[in-house]
Amino acid sequence: MTTLVWLRQDLRLADNPALYHACRSDESAVVVFIDDPTPTSTTQLGAASRVWLHHSLQALDSALRSFGNRLIVRQGEALSTLQALLAETGATRVFWNRVYEPASLARDKHLKQTLKAVCEVHSYNASLLQEPWDVLKADATPYKVFTPFWKAALKIGVVQPPLPLPTRIPAPTVLPASLSITDLGLLPDIRWDVPMMAHWEVGETTARHKLQQFLTQHAADYKTARNIPAQPGTARLSPHLHFGEISPRQAVYFAEHYLAENLHAEAGVRHFIQEIGWREFSYHLLYHFPHTVDRPLDVRFERFAWADNYAEILQRWQHGKTGFPIVDAGMRELWHTGWMHNRVRMIVASLLTKNLLVPWQAGENWFRDTLVDADLASNVFGWQWTAGCGADAAPYFRIFNPILQSQKFDPEGEYIRRWVPELARRDNKLIHLPRELGDGLKDYPLPLVDLGKSRERALRLFTGIKVSG
């Protein structure tokens, strides 16, 4: 007998519940990835994420081949594709790991109800430490503030041993037909992705190595170093987590294991685990408040007076030509590498939404298209947090000053010089300043906005909706 194992955001072999349980019996496993082009499907990734997916699928297929199996690739609507595979293979079971975006939840519920009429169906948690419905307040309502959410999660328990790599992944005697990964058309016709991917290695093996390297080399200093964009102080695991090349359960378990033998690193390791907690919290919010995909959690922001006719401003921000050095450095880092340092993400988002009054959805859409780690829950949560309309106790007055942030977190201007070469010759004092506040530099744009006046305008508008709400 045969089991279909449908993989999506879980492109790994170890700690993969659907695959693990499929391989526990003597049945053979057909491991399948379906590129579902239907409009409601969350497989509609941005351009950078599609590039990563191409390479991740290749790495997964290579790993399966080492077990004498292979990845079956199909393209089409998920239900009809699975039904066709059931007929072709004679499979009696379908296993998958759950995904939690609203469109996928609705689709998977319908899939399970339909397929149960003809075969055995099981779904598992492979991408979160705990299910979103398991961490609730005493009155069974969801949390909207991180600290009490994380305390509750820690009380339940977040450290669990990950499932091992299967000892065998038996293939049926005859595997069904498969597209090639190239047939999915994930790579662009104009190969802008080649220099971007020169910054990355993809796949489960790389993800595990990167975690171990981070723990041994950077974890002890993580709490402070994570804010310095010029330094390699972060784990850079976000794209690997996004595609499930490594699980949060693995990240937390191995971090705790490292900490047990390296107590000097406790502050950094605890903070790293808490960052995994923020990822959990973003999924908690998206599950319980699915409208936040494109609407604010704080409903008062439905009537906020965002700017009109902001296309030119948005384009300058997208291309790293705002006139604020650290913002432009971050946007260019994103363009060249498909990634941006988290501290800088907050700075660029604050300028766009609060100083320029461009709707947060425009920034979230750009990030979703250009980030290799464009995780829907984390992306939406981050943008709403910075814009002031998300889950936070008192967010509206938090407006990052890009000059002060630059001076504090990139004091030598190393990060700016790396990504904004036209400023490379400026001294450490001037490099943080817009052109109008510095020397007579001509090949760098004037700032898009007056920081002081735009801050006052934002506070006035934010206070207005708070009072009227």
UniProtKB/TrEMBL annotation:
<feature type="site" description="Electron transfer via tryptophanyl radical">
    <location>
        <position position="306"/>
    </location>
</feature>
<feature type="site" description="Electron transfer via tryptophanyl radical">
    <location>
        <position position="383"/>
    </location>
</feature>
<dbReference type="GO" id="GO:0009416">
    <property type="term" value="P:response to light stimulus"/>
</dbReference>
<dbReference type="InterPro" id="IPR014729">
    <property type="entry name" value="Rossmann-like_a/b/a_fold"/>
</dbReference>
<dbReference type="GO" id="GO:0003904">
    <property type="term" value="F:deoxyribodipyrimidine photo-lyase activity"/>
</dbReference>
<feature type="binding site">
    <location>
        <position position="222"/>
    </location>
    <ligand>
        <name>FAD</name>
    </ligand>
</feature>
<feature type="binding site">
    <location>
        <begin position="234"/>
        <end position="238"/>
    </location>
    <ligand>
        <name>FAD</name>
    </ligand>
</feature>
<dbReference type="InterPro" id="IPR036155">
    <property type="entry name" value="Crypto/Photolyase_N_sf"/>
</dbReference>
<dbReference type="InterPro" id="IPR006050">
    <property type="entry name" value="DNA_photolyase_N"/>
</dbReference>
<keyword id="KW-0157">Chromophore</keyword>
<dbReference type="Pfam" id="PF00875">
    <property type="entry name" value="DNA_photolyase"/>
</dbReference>
<protein>
    <recommendedName>
        <fullName>Deoxyribodipyrimidine photo-lyase</fullName>
        <ecNumber>4.1.99.3</ecNumber>
    </recommendedName>
</protein>
<dbReference type="GO" id="GO:0071949">
    <property type="term" value="F:FAD binding"/>
</dbReference>
<keyword id="KW-0274">FAD</keyword>
<feature type="binding site">
    <location>
        <begin position="373"/>
        <end position="375"/>
    </location>
    <ligand>
        <name>FAD</name>
    </ligand>
</feature>
<feature type="binding site">
    <location>
        <position position="272"/>
    </location>
    <ligand>
        <name>FAD</name>
    </ligand>
</feature>
<comment type="function">
    <text>Involved in repair of UV radiation-induced DNA damage. Catalyzes the light-dependent monomerization (300-600 nm) of cyclobutyl pyrimidine dimers (in cis-syn configuration), which are formed between adjacent bases on the same DNA strand upon exposure to ultraviolet radiation.</text>
</comment>
<comment type="similarity">
    <text>Belongs to the DNA photolyase family.</text>
</comment>
<dbReference type="Pfam" id="PF03441">
    <property type="entry name" value="FAD_binding_7"/>
</dbReference>
<dbReference type="InterPro" id="IPR018394">
    <property type="entry name" value="DNA_photolyase_1_CS_C"/>
</dbReference>
<dbReference type="InterPro" id="IPR002081">
    <property type="entry name" value="Cryptochrome/DNA_photolyase_1"/>
</dbReference>
<keyword id="KW-0285">Flavoprotein</keyword>
<feature type="site" description="Electron transfer via tryptophanyl radical">
    <location>
        <position position="360"/>
    </location>
</feature>
<feature type="domain" description="Photolyase/cryptochrome alpha/beta">
    <location>
        <begin position="1"/>
        <end position="129"/>
    </location>
</feature>
<dbReference type="GO" id="GO:0000719">
    <property type="term" value="P:photoreactive repair"/>
</dbReference>
<comment type="similarity">
    <text>Belongs to the DNA photolyase class-1 family.</text>
</comment>
<dbReference type="InterPro" id="IPR036134">
    <property type="entry name" value="Crypto/Photolyase_FAD-like_sf"/>
</dbReference>
<dbReference type="InterPro" id="IPR005101">
    <property type="entry name" value="Cryptochr/Photolyase_FAD-bd"/>
</dbReference>
<dbReference type="GO" id="GO:0003677">
    <property type="term" value="F:DNA binding"/>
</dbReference>
